[in-house]
Amino acid sequence: MSTSRSLLQSLLLPLPWLLLSCGDATPEDTAPPIPATAESDEVAPRLPEPMSVEQPMPTAPPAEAAVDCNVAPTARKDLVCWRWRCDRINRSEGTWSGNLASCTAGDISAAGRTNALRMVNLYRFLGGLSAVTTDGTKNAAAQKCALMEHANSTLSHTPPTTWKCYSSEGATAAGRSNIATAPGVSAVDLYMADPGNPTTIGHRRWILSRSLGPIGLGSTLVGTAGYSCMHVIGGSGMASYAYQAWPPPGPVPIEMWNAVSFAPLDTVGWTVQSDTINLSGATATLKDGSTVVPTSTTTLGSGYGSTYAIRFTPTSTSWRAQAGHTYNVTITKTGMTPITYAVQPTACP
Asked: Under a CB-based contact definition with an 8 Å cutoff, are residues 229 and 252 in contact?
């Protein structure tokens, strides 16, 4: 289920995901204001460093047992597996009507955009978040962004006017998007794994952002190679969660831990993000049942899809979460009400 190819360079828009030399966002680039609370500070949106990875790229789902995707189960444990299986059956990138030589942005076919959006909303569903939609204007701008990045074989949130196929619409979208050296559908798994961005985990945080949506999806595809832009900045979503954990509480498909084989979740890190709880300096404790799993906690940069966030990883590089176990997480900080939740990795038959 893998094909060798150049992977990803992704970026985010809020300021923390700084790409090569991404500066502070202008007022029109910032996400909607966060409702005022004692712990809330409005922070300009940021973008993460572009991710460039040379690794095998998953291009097709593995062989799976038959599943009826027309009838959704009711139990949460069964439902998360049903969604994981059914939403990933069709991961076709579609076709691209554009052309690099003539600088024609064209468009990605409806199937490619639909499949990419389904992947975004699969991850948001697992996190207990509402689905997002796409916006036609943002799609068109993201398409011009993808054309520019592909034509120059480079990722940048601030493309210069000297670039091949430059357009002001594409350049603006580049400064407001997750960007990747992978076509749109494949890029979503990469954003959620987010290897190479240990100080921000910005791509993941944007997809899980309370302000996300509507988004724009643009992608190129020449053979199996492509570039893509996901317009994430400036959304109007207002999810009401106090914090968002990844992996999330409750049953979660164990297959998600290795959706990107070279960037397992336990290696890249578990995360907790919030716009209203100041997590700076907080410490995570992870237990397998009652047994403490030694971890290290890092405060992440502000503005990458959330005002505050932390990442924690097991100190043993060989430790891996196991299906059938319950992992209890506690986040503590002086003066902060502790955050507690339990993650239940579940094998999906």
From this structure: no
Residues 6 or more apart from 279 whose CB is under 8 A from it? 243, 272, 273, 299, 308, 309, 310, 331, 333
214: preceding bond cis by omega (within 30 degrees): yes
Q: Which helix (H) or strand (E) holds 178?
A: strand 177-180
Cβ neighbours for 78, distance < 8 A, ≥ 6 positions apart: none
What sign does the CA torsion over 145, 150, 152, 155 have? positive
Torsion sign over Cα 198, 199, 204, 208: positive
Give pLDDT, residue 349: 82
> What is the band of 39 on the pLDDT scale with cuts at 50, 70, 90?
very low
What percent of the chain is modeled with pLDDT above 90? 79
CA of residue 170 relative to chain centroid, distance: 21
Whether residue 18 contacts residue 182, with contact meaning beta carbons closer than 8 Å, is answered with no
Among 36-40, 254-258, 259-263, the range scoring the smallest mean pLDDT is 36-40
pLDDT digits (tens, 9 = 90+) for 315-329: 999 999 999 999 999
Q: What is the DSSP letter of 232?
A: -
Closest CA to 273 of 345, 197, 202: 202
Beta strand ranges found along 193-321 (DSSP E): 216-219, 228-231, 244-246, 250-253, 270-274, 283-288, 291-293, 295-299, 308-314
Strand 270-274 to 327-333 pairing: unpaired
Peptide bond before residue 247 is cis, with ω within 30 degrees of 0: yes
Q: SS3 of 284, please?
A: strand
* Span 301-310, average pLDDT: 97
CA atoms within 13 A on the CB side of 278: 14
Q: Point out which residues pair with 250 in neighbouring strands.
A: 343
Instruction: Give whole-number Cα distances, 346 to 10, 69, 116, 291, 340, in Å.
Output: 29, 19, 24, 19, 20
Average pLDDT of the residues in 87-100: 98
